[in-house]
């Protein structure tokens, strides 16, 4: 299941984000979205966890959790039909 994480501290790196979610299950992928011009974090990212139950536990356990002073928002990533 793909999970969207918002309100990430701009200083948080992908390995730090991955560590947060590894406590809940096997992390298949972890990406922090970067600004194309500056290369800096945009403050959100995605994590993919193999087992749906583990992903739901991560969402429940981490939503609203303070990370480096920011309360992160965690939810299931919605699929879009933007592919053209």
User: Percent helix among the residues?
Assistant: 10-25%
Give the low-pLDDT segments. Answer: none
**Net shape:** globular
- Which percent band covers the strand fraction? 35-45%
Q: What's the number of helices?
A: 2
How many strands?
6
Roughly what is the average pLDDT, rounded to an integer? Answer: 94
Which strand order does the major sheet show? Answer: 2-3-1-6
Order of helices and strands: EHEEHEEE
Describe the sheet with the most strands: 4 strands, antiparallel
First-last Cα distance:
23 Å
- Calculate Rg over CA atoms: 13 Å
Secondary-structure map with pairings?
Elements: E1 2-6, H1 14-22, E2 27-34, E3 41-49, H2 52-62, E4 66-67, E5 70-71, E6 73-76
Antiparallel strand pairs: 1-3, 1-6, 2-3, 4-5
Short description:
By secondary structure, this protein is of the alpha+beta class.
Can you tell me about this structure?
The protein has 84 residues and is an alpha+beta fold. Helix content is 24%, strand content 36%. It contains 2 helices and 6 strands. It has helices spanning 14-22, 52-62; strands at residues 2-6, 27-34, 41-49, 66-67, 70-71, 73-76. Strands 2-3-1-6 form a 4-stranded antiparallel beta sheet, with helices on one face. β2 (27-34) and β3 (41-49) form a beta hairpin. The longest helix has 11 residues, at 52-62. The radius of gyration is 13 Å and the shape is globular. The two termini are 23 Å apart. The mean pLDDT is 94.
Question: Any descriptors?
Answer:
6 strands; two-stranded antiparallel ribbon; globular; 84 residues; 24% helix; alpha+beta
């Amino acid at each position: 299941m793909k999970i969207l994480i918002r309100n990430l501290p701009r200083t948080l790196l992908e390995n730090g984000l991955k560590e947060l979610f590894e406590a809940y299950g096997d992390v298949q992928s972890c990406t922090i979205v970067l600004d194309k011009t500056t290369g800096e974090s945009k403050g959100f990212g995605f994590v993919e966890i193999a087992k749906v139950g583990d992903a739901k536990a991560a969402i429940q356990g981490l939503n609203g959790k303070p990370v480096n002073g920011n309360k992160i928002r965690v939810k299931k990533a919605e699929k879009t039909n933007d592919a053209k």
